[in-house]
């Protein structure tokens, strides 16, 4: 049985323009100990998916459909107090901006002690010892327990956040852009740290990022999000080497402009759809070089291999698409329609 299973999960935000469906009918599975990477351009719903799983949606957001089964329970049905026992101990999270993740008015030690004591029978002293051990493990030393977050560098703060997420050895960790905003060397260090700790604990992990190289490096499985939908999911090697959705092909192509402008994820012309009024049928059609009339209809989720699916009418032509999509002019001029 899977550790985490999402079935037909949809999430909406109430906005001035009407309901915005940021996550649409997502099906997803994660086995114990597995690392799942989620990639996609800005605004495709990655963070919303994370907040949906963690029950951290803002006031205007709500899950409008589906089930999220974790270890035999439906997370969408948990009460506030049930969430208090699940969060950190069973599902923890690492968010992008560590300064926001840590409370500026408490010392690092105090934040550990609070979380540890809420979930264990540890005395204050025992919790502090455990916190110190965790700090040593992430390479910043127990001497920093009395520091306030602002006394640490960005990289050190992110190490603290990683240590907090792992302190109670949860079976699932969700990390949203855990290395974004850090300098390149620190990014690599934090990524290595996360990988080492994850493999030591054997926790499952969902790692969300717009940086494909991160996913290629760490994830067993990869999910690609576009316009609120999961458009392709499979083993990372299959998703990257045997892509079945044209969006994935566009994302993974190393076009010259990507080298010139490494901040840009894609060289796919255009932008993701507005999620208040998403296009009918395939959401990627308007940017897809292989679009046909059929794409005005909602594409099916097709199996294309072992635990590998793609949401496209033309998965049977994926090999040709891969070939053509590796040429930049396919994207700039549009292919044979
Ligand atoms: N609190 C909110 N209220 C209204 N709309 C929101 C809110 N948060 C996000 N959205 C919208 O939901 C959609 C998905 O946003 P989300 O933050 O989940 O995307 P993302 O893939 O994480 O993007 P990024 O890569 O920039 O972090 C976007 O259209 C965004 O504008
Ligand atoms: Mg995000």
UniProtKB/TrEMBL annotation:
Lineage top rank: taxon: Archaea
Ranges of biased composition (kind: Basic and acidic residues): 319-337
Keywords carried by this UniProt record: ATP-binding, Cell membrane, Membrane, Nucleotide-binding, Transport
A single Gene Ontology CC term: plasma membrane
UniProt topology in membrane: Peripheral membrane protein
Database matches in PROSITE patterns: ABC_TRANSPORTER_1 (PS00211), ABC_TRANSPORTER_2 (PS50893)
Cellular localization per UniProt: Cell membrane
One Pfam family of this chain: oligo_HPY
One Gene Ontology term from the biological process aspect of the record: peptide transport
Region Disordered: start-end pairs: 316-337
Domain ABC transporter: 4-252
Single GO term (MF): ATP hydrolysis activity
Annotated InterPro entries: AAA+_ATPase, ABC_Ni/Peptide_Import, ABC_transporter-like_ATP-bd, ABC_transporter-like_CS, Oligopep_ABC_C, P-loop_NTPase
NCBIfam families: oligo_HPY
Alphabetical list of PANTHER family matching this protein: DIPEPTIDE TRANSPORT ATP-BINDING PROTEIN DPPD, OLIGOPEPTIDE TRANSPORT ATP-BINDING PROTEIN APPD
Record-given protein name: Dipeptide/oligopeptide/nickel ABC transporter ATP-binding protein
Organism name: Halobellus salinus
